[in-house]
Amino acid sequence: MAIETTVEALDLPALIRPGSMVCWGQASAEPLTLTRALMARRAEIGRFDVFVGMGWSETADPAFADQVRFYSYCATGSNRRLAAAGCLDIIPSHYSSLPRLLAPRVDVLLLQLAPPDAEGRYSMAAACEYLRPLVDSARLVIAEVNDQAPATPSLHGLTAADIDIIVHSSRPLATMPSPAPGAAEKAIGQVIAGLVEDGAVLQVGLGSLPESVLLALSGHRDLGVHSGLMTDGMAELIERGVITNARKPVDAGVSVTGLLAGSRRLTDLAHRNPAFALHETAYTHDLNVLARLDRFTTINAAVEVDLTGQINAEEVAGRYVGAVGGAPDFLRGAHLAARGRPIIALPATAKGRDGPVSRIVATLGGPVSTSRGDAGIIVTEYGSADLRGLSLPERRARMIAIAAPEFHEELERAGHAAPT
Fold first, then answer.
1. What percent of the chain has pLDDT over 70?
2. How far is CA 231 from CA 123, 263, 359, 417, in A?
3. Where are the domains of the chain?
4. Does 3.30.390.30 match the CATH number of domain 3-169?
């Protein structure tokens, strides 16, 4: 049975072993009362490891690397500061593999939960994904029960028997402002909107580009959601009656997600709403489930794509800025689904030191995050290139057509020189 205490009385140095790994929920799911207390007492604990997901708070700070070794699957959000300072160890992994990879390493799990219901079950609130399996494998589970956290419906709620220590709080969830989309992002949104059918089941990544796509879908009907995360853009489409999940062959009427990655608007909408369901990564990213979703349409961003369809979603000029993430899992699912649309989107250019540089490239400047065998439809503001079933020369021609016009000649020369 869980012990209830206050954060002031919580003796973290006595509970956390030097050299062990601590993990907590990412983005809006971070238990800020606990993580701030942990960072404040890190010197008393001695050196220890932390696995952080996407950071939306100040707890992923290079100053704390004096005692903490930070690991993550990504360098998004506040993790950028850690990566820039050389204080972040990246674990390059498909998102679907995270529960299996973390289970033997995570010793202490910090959770943010919503208060219990009448049956004594605690909601996982903003995130279930890779956290719920760690409840069973971690040596110690400490939960922050936050009365401002949403009680999101889920099959994976907890009881007091699953928790070792409970600390109560009342505070807003962490949020991160979304940058306003630029002209290229808006144009890409319009291109992708033309590829999305009514009744499609959506998966989207995070950022201004996927949000631009969602804004462009306001005229669609009966869209569904099966995604690793949900955003404010999805909340707006639900409020407008665009997302209904009415035509989903699996989980009809329900938006399925692993993480609520939005503002109060989204979490308020999800609170005790039977049209939402939080699930583990083992379900949200499962190929057998994804293959059953008719018109499964995945929309993810990339740093750059080469002329054959190889995708770099991790590095820019040697700096780690992204992740392997869930894109490979979802792209494969969309390939398998009837009438699926595996989409990768990116602006055609980026700002370079001497002017614009093409993001459609002859040779990737970073790692291959997704193989060309898993590539599907590549979209820029200049159009879409459906690479499925095409030969290498055919792919090169399609990719050059959606590159910025000022780079066509350079890319054509590189394409002619490439092996066929």
1. 99
2. 19, 8, 26, 43
3. 3-169, 183-417
4. no
